[in-house]
Amino acid sequence: xxxxxxxxxxxxxxxxxxxxxxxxxxxxxxxxxxxxxxxxxxxxxxxxxxxxxxxxxxxxxxxxxxxxxxxxxxxxxxxxxxxxxxxxxxxxxxxxxxxxxxxxxxxxxxxxxxxxxxxxxxxxxxxxxxxxxxxxxxxxxxxxxxxxxxxxxxxxxxxxxxxxxxxxxxxxxxxxxxxxxxxxxxxxxxxxxxxxxxxxxxxxxxxxxxxxxxxxxxxxxxxxxxxxxxxxxxxxxxxxxxxxxxxxxxxxxxxxxxxxxxxxxxxxxxxxxxxxxxxxxxxxxxxxxxxxxxxxxxxxxxxxxxxxxxx
Length: 311
Known about the structure:
Layout: H1 2-32, H2 53-63, H3 69-72, H4 83-88, H5 104-128, H6 147-207, H7 219-222, H8 224-237, H9 241-250, H10 264-268, H11 275-279, H12 300-310
């Protein structure tokens, strides 16, 4: 612990010495008049530029190669003559050396004419050197990428397309679910609205505000108009054969209850009375329910006697 305290004390004393030296240097500089009152900013000395043409030429000679023109294919020429301007009898701006760098059309035309001049100069030189400038018809260029690489790219494209199709299908399903939920919500809201209207109608009826019970019909009340229209159409056409037969047999309209009751006139009317039928002496015999009784089968003894007689 004592050694550490001594080291810390030494460090503090060295910092104090540096600060004292710096303050002393500043005082000396101020005494000499080198420092002026105000803010003092340290200025960097400008870098000295070095220009050595001989060294540059030497470096150029080291990496320069004297190759033939076929290997270099470089041309330095002026732009070609403007044929259109000559035909119109006007001098081009390039010929008068008045090229504006701000004029895009003029600048691009200058580049175009310069490329034309390079082509006109290079093609004859290439023909002299017997170098073909056109691709033969049966020329097949070698692919820069291998077939395996192209297959990988194709697989990636197919996977990307499949992923897009899946996302589109999922999107369509989400839209359908949203639409289904929307329809379900609308149906529930409609039911709640109908229930609310029915409850309010019941309350009004209980309080005696209305004497109508149409709200009990519900959906049937809505279909009354349709049934009325269908019945009206049926009446216009007329009743069917079944309805006509029933009307003829049982009657149509009028009072139904008590239609078979006797009256004074029917009680005194004896025209349809038959004594034989009334007393069971003749005529057809009917059992319960108004049905005719079948012939009674003879007993077992009588049947045996009839058989023995026949033998």
